[in-house]
TrEMBL record:
InterPro entries: NAD(P)-bd_dom_sf (IPR036291), Sc_DH/Rdtase_CS (IPR020904), SDR_fam (IPR002347)
SUPFAM superfamilies: NAD(P)-binding Rossmann-fold domains
Taxonomic classification: Bacteria, Pseudomonadati, Pseudomonadota, Alphaproteobacteria, Hyphomicrobiales
Protein name listed in UniProt: SDR family oxidoreductase
Organism name: Roseibium porphyridii
Domain of life: Bacteria
Family of the protein in this entry: Belongs to the short-chain dehydrogenases/reductases (SDR) family.
Signal peptide: none
Amino acid sequence: MTALFDVTGKVVCVTGASSGLGRRAATVLASAGASVVGVARRAEDLENWKQEAGGHTAAVSADLSDRAKLAKTVEEVSTPFGPPQILVHAAGINTRQVADEVTPEGWDITLTLNLTIPFFLSKAFVPAMREKGWGRIVNFASLQTERAFPGGISYGASKGGIGQLTRAMAEAWSEDGINTNALGPGFFPTELTAAVFGDKERAERNAAQTCIGRNGELEDIDGPLLFLCSEASSYVTGQILMVDGGFTAK
């Protein structure tokens, strides 16, 4: 049964690998035997991740919000180990602008980084996956894929879009052996949620909203991630797996 979750020898690209759930994902996949290319804007943090993760890892510093440089990023990602067979789109931004204060700049960078890049980066690597007849794409959805949160209109729009993008990518590419699914994390302690966890009362309210009775811990993402990246999910595509302790069930 262990072989079902095996990613040994697979080439993986993880965006947002310098911090939070992206860093955790990149580390877990490297520990599981994959060759992992971490992509993020902050070169120093990426290098720290690489030293921490060990294994077969490489780092590509890139500003994914700059679409003009996407082709260069694709080339750099493919250089260390070849084109990836597994893509994990964990990079993201949340400007937390309330509806009346949303700026065009805030809207554009949110939609570009959270929604546009996962599609076009995937599209660039699909031909190599198609040639091998195997691929896994894991998008990052959110509680805001399902729920509206205060100050989350642009972020929520992007994550709502991820839900439909995941289904549409599955429809387009699953026949070629390329499965696309999404993880939908609940409240985890990351840079994006620092304000939430910095407010003890708010964090406790969020924990009480779950069925399990606590907020997420980084290791809670490991099993669901390996499931979606491996043969274990060979007949699963176009789905959003909410890893939220039952937050959206209540």
